[in-house]
Each structure stands twice: as structure tokens, then as C-alpha cells.
Specification:
Elements: E1 2-10, H1 16-32, E2 36-52, E3 55-67, H2 71-80, E4 85-93
Antiparallel strand pairs: 1-3, 1-4, 2-3
């Protein structure tokens, strides 16, 4: 199993309950794709380098997880269709 880091930025105007629900839903998405979550870091609201869809800030979340080779493609596909996600990126960590 490979180790991955997933960084995504949520819209800043979601509210605490919706943000927590989204984080839980995205962690469940990784688990459903046969991955295991190692760590979830909530970085909080931060200023973006440039506006994305009219937003100057975003709520950053970093997730470290393990999974097989197909998990990155599936999680990326799922995050792209979520309206609450401004940007996302998955990186495979070298052993």
C-alpha cells in the first residue's frame, strides 16, 4: 500500500457544522475506496494566493492516508464533483 497526502480547500462561508460534515464525508470517501486514514489536519481559514470562484479565503484540510494505486484517481474524481471544494490535490509520498 502506498502513502498519500490529500490537500483540499473548502469554501470559507460554509459554517462550522457544514465544514465538519464535509471533512467527515471526504474521510469516509477514502475509507470506502479501501484506504486507511492516518491523520487529518485542519489548518483552518487562510488567505488564498488568488481568488477562486470569487473567494479570497478558504478552509484548508490536509489528510494523510494509505491505499492502493487506484485510490488517488477515485478520490480525485469524487472531489472534483463536490460543490464545497474549491481546489484539491493528492500527492504520493515516496518511501
Amino acid at each position: 500500500m502506498a502513502q498519500y497526502e490529500l490537500m483540499y480547500i473548502l469554501k470559507p462561508d460554509l459554517g462550522d457544522e457544514q465544514t465538519a460534515a464535509d471533512i467527515e464525508r471526504f474521510n469516509d470517501m477514502v475509507v470506502r475506496a479501501s484506504g486507511t486514514i492516518d491523520k487529518t489536519d485542519k489548518w483552518g481559514r487562510r488567505k488564498l494566493s488568488f481568488d477562486i470562484d470569487g473567494h479570497g479565503e478558504g478552509f484548508y484540510v490536509l489528510v494523510t492516508f494509505q491505499g492502493d494505486g487506484t485510490i488517488a484517481n477515485e478520490v480525485t474524481r469524487q472531489l472534483k464533483i463536490q460543490e464545497d471544494v474549491l481546489r484539491s490535490m493528492i500527492v504520493r509520498l515516496d518511501a
